[in-house]
Every structure is written in structure tokens, then in C-alpha cells.
Amino acid sequence: MSGNSMGLLFSVTSFGESHGPGIGCVVDGCPPGLELSEADIQAELDRRKPGTSRHVTQRREPDTVEILSGVYEGKTTGTPIALLIRNTDQRSKDYGNIADTFRPGHADYTYWHKYGIRDPRGGGRSSARETAVRVAAGAIAKKWLREKFGIVIRGHMTQIGAVEIPFQSWNVVNDNPFFAADASKVDELEAYMDSIRKSLDSVGARLRVVAENVPVGWGEPVYDRLDADIAYAMMNINAVKGVEIGAGFGCVTQRGSEHGDELTPQGFASNHAGGVLGGISTGQDIEVSIAIKPTSSIAQPRRSINKAGEPIEMETHGRHDPCVGIRATPIAEAMLALVLIDHALRHRAQCGDVHVDTPRIPGRIG
Amino acid sequence: MSGNSMGLLFSVTSFGESHGPGIGCVVDGCPPGLELSEADIQAELDRRKPGTSRHVTQRREPDTVEILSGVYEGKTTGTPIALLIRNTDQRSKDYGNIADTFRPGHADYTYWHKYGIRDPRGGGRSSARETAVRVAAGAIAKKWLREKFGIVIRGHMTQIGAVEIPFQSWNVVNDNPFFAADASKVDELEAYMDSIRKSLDSVGARLRVVAENVPVGWGEPVYDRLDADIAYAMMNINAVKGVEIGAGFGCVTQRGSEHGDELTPQGFASNHAGGVLGGISTGQDIEVSIAIKPTSSIAQPRRSINKAGEPIEMETHGRHDPCVGIRATPIAEAMLALVLIDHALRHRAQCGDVHVDTPRIPGRIG
Amino acid sequence: MSGNSMGLLFSVTSFGESHGPGIGCVVDGCPPGLELSEADIQAELDRRKPGTSRHVTQRREPDTVEILSGVYEGKTTGTPIALLIRNTDQRSKDYGNIADTFRPGHADYTYWHKYGIRDPRGGGRSSARETAVRVAAGAIAKKWLREKFGIVIRGHMTQIGAVEIPFQSWNVVNDNPFFAADASKVDELEAYMDSIRKSLDSVGARLRVVAENVPVGWGEPVYDRLDADIAYAMMNINAVKGVEIGAGFGCVTQRGSEHGDELTPQGFASNHAGGVLGGISTGQDIEVSIAIKPTSSIAQPRRSINKAGEPIEMETHGRHDPCVGIRATPIAEAMLALVLIDHALRHRAQCGDVHVDTPRIPGRIG
Amino acid sequence: MSGNSMGLLFSVTSFGESHGPGIGCVVDGCPPGLELSEADIQAELDRRKPGTSRHVTQRREPDTVEILSGVYEGKTTGTPIALLIRNTDQRSKDYGNIADTFRPGHADYTYWHKYGIRDPRGGGRSSARETAVRVAAGAIAKKWLREKFGIVIRGHMTQIGAVEIPFQSWNVVNDNPFFAADASKVDELEAYMDSIRKSLDSVGARLRVVAENVPVGWGEPVYDRLDADIAYAMMNINAVKGVEIGAGFGCVTQRGSEHGDELTPQGFASNHAGGVLGGISTGQDIEVSIAIKPTSSIAQPRRSINKAGEPIEMETHGRHDPCVGIRATPIAEAMLALVLIDHALRHRAQCGDVHVDTPRIPGRIG
């Protein structure tokens, strides 16, 4: 595989460029019998859709998904599910001026040297637009995990630039444009993002994703650890520069007497592990945190070079997210779901019939 | 594969338990014609060997490697290179008391529920001892990368618990037991670690790994990104809880005008990207930072449960590293080398004959 | 992967059912810079298209392919090439009567027990219609192999039922509906096939595929041997029951003194090996022969059972090929091309820079 | 992977050369809890061991296997099972004369051009000796399949050179050096093989492998079909030139009315399919037949070339099997077992919880 597929048993093979005919993927390995409609997928797609507020790109893409295969009479058949999203809003002129130059912070320079040819329209394959297909594939994974195991996967923004966003309640996350879990922070965020846009700049973000009700025993022991596959999945999201599981970098200053989560018959006493020990799920919540870099496309002049290697100064205009992190929440949820369903199937293959008398303790006390 | 292999074209398949007959791996895909001897591998193994100072486990393991195949008259033949390290120092009695209990912070509970059976001696498969085979395999990767591309992969400790360790010089890193890049910090670290041991506790650490002279163009665009595979590899190291590329979590508060590395004919003006853009190497240094949790095995009483699910109190005695992070430096270097060689081969397969006239700019200015 | 992808570096992921919205595939790993248009692919698709003569199914499918991604300004970009063929002629009523029964010789019974659900329309996923996407993907592989190495991949029918078809000339193969390499046999075949149809029966076939100008050194030594991957690819074609390389089953009665192909500076003295020794190409022609079973769908009454397990008698009407082997020639060529390009890339990855002074001898003497 | 691993979920990674320190493999993915000892594996190894009769190579190799990992207190733990067979009888002088020449019918020429270096001692990696590790790995697969599903995998010789060997009874197969299922043929075979040896020549063979009690539903629908993976596995055996499933090449002259196996509530009326329809097992016996070429190493003078490309005449002396097919029976059984266990696990992953009310009919009537 050449880097456009992920997953061993529940695999997603992605295709498409930002301004080509369309984007999509083939989902192979979905268990048969799952009720699935385009509406199930569309609901997740709409959460990351551009143009939903003034704080994200104003590009207008309905992102309407078509199921091309693998579903018969409303149920998955166990055969590949192909999903297609046609591109509709393609203002190539916005991008014509960058065909011979390399935008700082973008993949232009690396694609050019790797392939010797690139589709410059909207970043081509390297556009964040590709993440829509992950959300679509993730919607299938999410539904199966929820119906089969009651697993709930949710994310929320914990910081945008200088503004930290405490967790208050999951209930408000989808009611504001920032996926913030604290409604009292929304006004401050609105003002902050407006100032960023006015300064023709962009800013980074940090978000948290949690999976609840994951059974103990998923994940592999040495490589393909559950947390390693999660780190892989998250770092595969455009602009992600850091990944933490559980205590994350906070563990550096912890003592073993603090970090190691104690076990009691009533449940785990804490969750510094973030739900994974020895690469295998513990039954606690899977806790993931990621850092997303500021959008590289800004309207300020920046130094770069052109194909001839000559110095140039460029400003990237067009319709860009001042904070790509904002729309990353549903993407991160989808990636976590894709990792979990793959390991659910892998576990079933090797250890599906294992039984021990030892009771499974709750993920947390009480 | 069931989680004991990594790498698509340069693959390592690992085996072995801490107290079984031995540990080892099969390295498949090494290009033919590389000069290779057991001494090349032993040199790296000795860097992570236990018992080298009072600050690491006092377990005595010579960790002597035997090449079982794939090398003829001192050169690799392109066939699988099997490496075997026999276990010698196995004090199973140290571990007999934990067969029916689950140590907090360890994989005991997860292995038990996953497999329904586990080898409790020294943690069996989940022992950090397994990382020796990665160092051995990584030594082969390192040598090929150095001879073929002049790539240099080095790591150093940046923090142990509360003590931050600034970077002064690579020259001193291998001359102190902490892989510290600042000799003036060694006394403080000695005292700090002694106090940790006296308090029967352990502590976390943070380290940095750098790969220099990586050509532009390695890595895949969507999944299997170079940074994603690096995150995967690092998170596969026992006890790692966080991974950063370049600016890492620091990018959250950065502006796009600061983070996006400008290009000039003389080179990149900065390296917040950490050497990867769009999943593909830029020609800048690959910059990775990881967080390692404190050793879970400590001699203080901790709450846990036994196989019957009953509450117990346990102290983990035996010979443990008070800071597992200390010996993680050569392991992290090895994992980075394994990712890089795999992508070197993948790049050669798909784009080996690509040529563009555009000059490759230096990784950094001047 | 769940059995809908093939190829490690040049991978094809197939999707679609006979009577769903469409069929297609994602081709990942195609080297960048290959000139490619829909016309290149259509030309191969038209060779297996139904309805081209009275000896194949009269189903009318234009099989028009659309390139959805991976091609920019007429050249491949190194990113995934997604191909879509919309289904147009779907007479589902032809198949309605078989939803609750299992056709003898078909996958109905096995799909039902494997998945617990199946799309019965036209055989759903198990329809030979899926092979169109392999021909489409194979067209890309064929073009790259031809342009890069001058490799020519051709097939012809060697036997239909009782009628053996000697090889006279490649020139006539595409000028008759049977892919026969002997024009003088065409009348006999016409009459033979007419008689088969009149008897409401079907018949098997045997065909030969040859790849010329394959360089020495492609293929892996133990598993993933070139001939093993060819056998895998051929047996993956619907209805194939046997595969031979070179002398094939003829080698059973050969002596070593006859079978072992002698080498001379002027070339190999014979090609009983079929172009592969020790799993690796020799530089001789790759010689493959396959057996294709008679079409299982015939209009004669046959015994079977229904979903309740009760005995039934059924005739399969609809528009079926009286000899599925006839349209298998372009499919077999495509499969061989897909195996060869994958190994071309794998060879380049591991041994791309190997040089020996030993001259490469011609595939055949003179 | 570079061609030394097979299997997606139950994977075998093989290593070793004929005259190196040893050969072996890592078996990854074996379900936990299987009782396993070295004796279980040794029993199968002894069936292919050289030197057991005058009709096979007189090389003396005890082929003693050591389990290095993955088994604790007599049971598999779900972690990798590493197997090592040390080489003992290495008469390198037998082979010294061929280091600079290419033996006809051997991999010498292809290895040399592929890798630019080769271990000529006993054929190095291309030696049939490597097949011992497949038998060892297959022994584990066989045991699990037998204990879990009652699957019985057996093979017997059906033809050696000109001598066809009818099937009489499984009971005699392991009581004669030819794995013949007809004791009355043994004298004729003894005389025939003696004559072959006297003539300093070798001969081909054909054998049949059968798997009984395979449940319906194993195998993938498009690629990775059960029969395709079987063809792949068999063609991966040194010297195999042809593979048939069920009717095999016999289907070419069959009519659809004959070939398509009818279904009745009492069972299938025939088994021309060989136990696979649409790539998925039917519940009938899996029927496989393979052709094995005559040994290439014969003591007659043959034409070849040397490294300089100059013509030479060579005789291959040493201790060779006059018919490599004879010892291929346990190897073919092992390869079939490895394919079946992999698909058993793959089926469990995707469709493990599928249930239909339709009764499963017997593999054969009565």
C-alpha cells in the first residue's frame, strides 16, 4: 500500500483531490448486517462541513455522500462500501498563482520533490478536504461500535491559541462553532477568532477525544499497540504536531506512586494511563489529546522560493480556516473510531473465544 | 500480522519473553550488500544494556546477539536476517508472587483478560526487555542509512522528573549514564536519582531524537505519513505516553506567521515543522520528542486486585529501573531508524526515478 | 484487508456489485508521470465488454470508465487513481426468482452462510462483472510496464471444450470472438458454440497468457514468489480451477535432464520453467496456462435447495455466457500485469541499485 | 514484507539458509490456550526428514526443533512462537565448485542478478531445506484446526513420473516411503526409482491434498479467495509448477450440466468445485492437486554459463532427492493448513457472529 489505506481488518482506502471530480474511499471489512444509510454518514459530514460559521473557511461544499456499494436493502453485506463525494465548489483561479511556487508550511515543496508533478489546485491531495472521507468512513465505524458495544466517541476543543477551554459538559459541544465544552467561553472565543482574522493571521489549537465503554483486551502487545495505532491515526490528520495518551507529557514530572493507576474491585482509582496498558485497552476511557498547528495559508507576505529555486515573496489568499483545529474535532473522533473498530475485529480473530472467571472491573470507581 | 511486526518493506518481526529461552527478531527486506557483523549490532545493544550504572536495573544480562541468517561472508544477502539473544539472568523467584495478581501500571490485567493466559515471569512479553531486539534491528537500519545517505540519528535526555537538561553538545551524551547533552547537569541528576531510589519511587522523563541529512521526499501523503509512522513507532515503546514532531504542543499558541517555516534559496528559515510537511520529509532535521512515564514497579505498597477480583495490597520488589526513560534513548533512536529505512525503500519503489530541476534547499540557513 | 485488495506496492482495491450503482476500484502506488487517459483504459475494457458477439452474454453494458482522481493534466501524480464504472443495464427481474434459492455452481450458498445476507441481483459481488475493474486497473499496469520495460502481455485461447486451438499467430487473436490464435479454427468454434447454446448447456475453456521482456530478478524467494503471486492472481479470477507455469502438469512425466533449462551465452536453450526459477524471473517469457470451468448458469433443470433447506428444482435463465472462458483472456492479461508491476516496484525498493558484471542472457536462443 | 512471510492473521515469517547456523520461523497470531510441545512439531518434521529411505537425499539432518517463545507451561500464550532448527550436516565442500556457476533449473542465476550476492552453499536460501520450517509452522496450524473444528488434512502421491498411483486407503500412506495410498504399487515404485537413480536422472511427481470438515464460509470473495490463497501457498513450494482445485484442468472439457455440483438436503451430489465456490468454502472436502518438477540437480553433464557469462559444462553431484516430490507431501499438507487457519481467523473477525437458520448441508451425500 502506498499510504492511502489504513486499517488491517476494517480498512479505509482514500482517494481524491481538492479540485478534481471528487473524493471518496472504499471501506473494506465492515461486518455484515449493520443498518446503514447515507443519512447516517451525512450527519457526521455536516459536523465538519465548511461554511458553517464565519470562523471557518467560507468555501461552499455540500459534501453530499453517495454509497456506491456494499449496502443492500439498508444493511451492510460484508462487501466493500465505496463512498463518493463529488466536488462542486472549485474556484481554481484562487490557486492558479501558486502552481510554480511553494507555500511555506504546505506540502507543495515536498510533493514536488517526491513526485516530480503535483496538482496545485487547492493543494490537490494534500488538502484538508481529504479528511471528509475519514469522517464518512468513521461514521460507519462509530455506528458499529455504538450498536455492538455501546462505545461512545466524543471530542471537544480544550484550547485555541492562548484561550484555554475547560470542560463543563458534553451537552454544549455541538451547539457552538468551536466544539467548546464550556458555553461561557464562546463569546471570548468569537472575539479572539475575529481578532486573529483581522490580523491576517491564524492560530493553533488543542483538542481532546474520549472513547467510553471500550472493553478490556483490545490492542496488540508490541507493535500495533492500541495507543500506537491511535498516535498513528491522529498524526495522520493534517496539521497535527503532537499526540498524548492519558497523562501524556504530564507524566514526565509524575512519580510512579502517582502515575500508576491502582485497581480496586470497585474500579480503577485513576486513569493516568488513558485507558491503555501494555498496548491493550484496560476498560477505562481512552483519553487522547492532540495539538494542531496554525493554518499555514495566511494573507501576510512570506518568504519562499519558486520552481527555479529563486526567492519570492508570497501572500496566500483564498478562503482558509483561521484555525484548522476547529473543524478537526469530528475528524479526530472518526480516526479514533477507525482504530477501535480495527482492533475490535483483530481481537475477535485471535482471542474471540477467550474466557476468564476474573471479573472485569469498572473503568472508574463508582 | 498480530502486532509483532513493523515495517512494510524493511520489516522487523519480534519474538520472545523476558524469562523464556531468549528474545530476537527477523529483519526482512534489508538491501543486499551491506557489510554487517554481530559487532555492529552489539555496539548499539551495549548502550541500552542493564546494569551499566546504579541508576538502572541491576539485572545482569550480557545481551549477546547471534546472527542466524541473511549474512554471508560479512555482507547482507537480501534474505531475512534473524537475530537471537539468549536470556541468561532469570530470577523467576523474584516474580513468583505476582502470578495471581495484577501490578498497577502494568500489562498484567490487560494480558490476562485478552489472552486468558500469561507468562508472569518478568512481565513475559510485555517486559521492556523486548526493546533490546528493536535496538538490534535498528542498528542494521542505522548503518544502512548512514552509509547510503549519510543520515545521522541521535537522541538525548531533555528532562528527568523535575530536572530539565538543556542541550549543550552531542559529544557528552554517551559519556554519562543519563544520555544528557550537558555534562554540568550530571551531578545534579545523580543526586536526584539517588533521592528517587531512596524514596522507593520512580520518575518520568522526556527525550529528544533527531535525524539529520534525511532527503526531501520520504513519507506518504495521507496515511503512513512519515510523522504518523514516527508517532506510531515511538508510542510502541513501552511507557511512552506522548509524542511531538517539531514544535509539537508548542504550536497551539503559535501564530501561522510564526509557525510556517519560510523557504529561501539558502535554506529553510526555521524548523517548526520538525522536518515533515504533508507527511513527507522536507530535508530539514527530523525532530521528535517523547514523554516516558515513571516505572510502574516500585517498592511502595499499592492497591490492586487478584485473579479472583479480591482487593489486595502489593509491593513490587525485584530489580527495576527507577526511571525507564534513561535507557529509552537508544530505543527511540532505533525506532526512528526503522521508520526511516522503511520509507527510504518505499520512496525508491514508487518515485525512485523521479527527477526535477528545482534545487533542493538546505535543511537550515547557513 | 478483507479480500478486496491485491498488490503490496501497486495495489488495487475493488468495490461494487453487479446491479448496484456501479463498480470500480482504487489503484494506489502507480508511479507518477505516466501519461494516462480514460481512452487508455477504455480500450482494454472494450475487449471484455459483453454483447460483442452471439457467443457471449447479450447483456448490454457500455462499461464506460471515469477517472475520479490521481491524474492531472493527462499524467499520473502518484496519488490514488480511482476508477468508476456506472451500471446501466440492470434487469433485476431476471434475478428476482433466485433470492431465496442457491444456484448450483454459484456462490449463493457460500455467501449466505458466510455473511448471513447477500445481494442476489446478478450475483451481487460474486458476479463476473467485477472483473471489469481488474481489466481497467490492469490497463494502467500494462501501459507502465510497456513504456518502462517494453514488456508485452498477451493471451489467447488454447481450448474450448473439446476443441483444441493451436497457436498460429498473435495477429489474429483480436480479430475473432474467441481470442483464437488460429483463424482457421474460427468456423469450427462458431459451430461448436452454437451447438452448446442449443443444448442449453455451457462448456469449459483453457487459455494461455505470456509476458515478454520481463527482466531477470523480479519476484521474492520464499513466499510471494513471482509464480506464486501469478497463481494467486489467476485463481482469483471467477471460474478458474487450475493454473500452470511453464511445463505445468507436463513436468510430472519429465526427467530432470529434459526439464531443467540449459543456459548458454546465446540464451536459454528451452523454457520449461516458464520464466521463473526459485520464485524469481529469469528473463525468459513468463508462460501461464489456466483452466476455466463451464458457466454454472444454464437453462436446464438442476437440483438445489432453498433457504429453508428444502429440495427444489431450478433453471437459471437470464443472459449468460455459454463459455465464461471466452471473455477471460483480457482479464488474465490484466491480472498478470498487476502481479508484474507490483514485483517491478518491490524489486526496485530492495534491489534497485544492484549491479553485477555478469551479462544477462537472452530469454531464448537466437 | 519482502517475501518471507505468509498469512494475514496467522502469519509465518521464515528465515535461514541451507548451510548457515540454522533455519526457523516466527509464528504470529496463534490463538492462546492451545496445548503445544516440541514433540507435536517434531512428529511432522520427521515425516519430511531426509535420509529416511534410499529414495531421498542421504543428507543426515535430525531437524530437531526448539520452541524459543510463545509457549508457557505447555500452552500457547497468544504471543509469537519462534521455532529454531539448527543446521548440523553441512558438507560445504559438496558445493564449493558451484559458487561461480549457475546450475540449470536452479535459482543461482536469478538470485545472482537480483541480489548481486548469494550464499551458494547448498543453494542458500533457495534450498528445499527451508520447507522444514513450513512443516513446523503447519504442525501448529494443523493441531489447532483439528482440535477446534475436527479438520483433517492429509496428502498422498498420485503419480511419480510415468507411474500413476490410484487411491486405495489413507491407512497405508505413512507406511511406505512414497506416501502412496496403494500398498500394491510400492514394489513398482521402488524399482522405478532405482532405475531413475541408476540413469543419473530425476523425475517429476503429482500429489493430492485433502482437507475434511472445513466449515462453510471461509475465504474472501474477490481476491484472497480461499482457492487463490491455496494456489499461492502451493506454488510457493519449491519445484511446484501447477495447481488444481477440484476438477482442475479436467473442467475444460466438462459441460456446465456436469461440473456444477447439485445441492440436496442430504448433501452435495458431487465435488467438482473442490470445496470452494466464489472463493468461499462450501463445507465439502477441499481438494487440491499439484505438479512437482523433477529435481534439477542431476549427475549428468549439462550446459550452463559462469559468472563471466562464458559457456561451461557441469554435473551437479552431492546428495539430492531423485524425486523432490516424494518429500513434498507433508509440505503441501502444512501449506494447506496455514491457509486454512488464516482464513478461519479472518472469518471469525468479520463474520464471527453471523447466524442463519438455513441448515448447513453435508459435504457429500450420505
From TrEMBL, chains A, B, C, D:
<dbReference type="InterPro" id="IPR035904">
    <property type="entry name" value="Chorismate_synth_AroC_sf"/>
</dbReference>
<comment type="function">
    <text>This reaction introduces a second double bond into the aromatic ring system.</text>
</comment>
<keyword id="KW-0456">Lyase</keyword>
<keyword id="KW-0057">Aromatic amino acid biosynthesis</keyword>
<comment type="similarity">
    <text>Belongs to the chorismate synthase family.</text>
</comment>
<feature type="binding site">
    <location>
        <position position="319"/>
    </location>
    <ligand>
        <name>FMN</name>
    </ligand>
</feature>
<keyword id="KW-0285">Flavoprotein</keyword>
<feature type="binding site">
    <location>
        <position position="278"/>
    </location>
    <ligand>
        <name>FMN</name>
    </ligand>
</feature>
<dbReference type="InterPro" id="IPR000453">
    <property type="entry name" value="Chorismate_synth"/>
</dbReference>
<feature type="binding site">
    <location>
        <position position="48"/>
    </location>
    <ligand>
        <name>NADP(+)</name>
    </ligand>
</feature>
<dbReference type="GO" id="GO:0004107">
    <property type="term" value="F:chorismate synthase activity"/>
</dbReference>
<feature type="binding site">
    <location>
        <begin position="125"/>
        <end position="127"/>
    </location>
    <ligand>
        <name>FMN</name>
    </ligand>
</feature>
<feature type="binding site">
    <location>
        <begin position="293"/>
        <end position="297"/>
    </location>
    <ligand>
        <name>FMN</name>
    </ligand>
</feature>
<feature type="binding site">
    <location>
        <begin position="238"/>
        <end position="239"/>
    </location>
    <ligand>
        <name>FMN</name>
    </ligand>
</feature>
<keyword id="KW-0288">FMN</keyword>
<keyword id="KW-0521">NADP</keyword>
<keyword id="KW-0028">Amino-acid biosynthesis</keyword>
<comment type="pathway">
    <text>Metabolic intermediate biosynthesis; chorismate biosynthesis; chorismate from D-erythrose 4-phosphate and phosphoenolpyruvate: step 7/7.</text>
</comment>
<feature type="binding site">
    <location>
        <position position="54"/>
    </location>
    <ligand>
        <name>NADP(+)</name>
    </ligand>
</feature>
<keyword id="KW-0274">FAD</keyword>
<protein>
    <recommendedName>
        <fullName>Chorismate synthase</fullName>
        <ecNumber>4.2.3.5</ecNumber>
    </recommendedName>
</protein>
<comment type="subunit">
    <text>Homotetramer.</text>
</comment>
<dbReference type="Pfam" id="PF01264">
    <property type="entry name" value="Chorismate_synt"/>
</dbReference>
<dbReference type="InterPro" id="IPR020541">
    <property type="entry name" value="Chorismate_synthase_CS"/>
</dbReference>
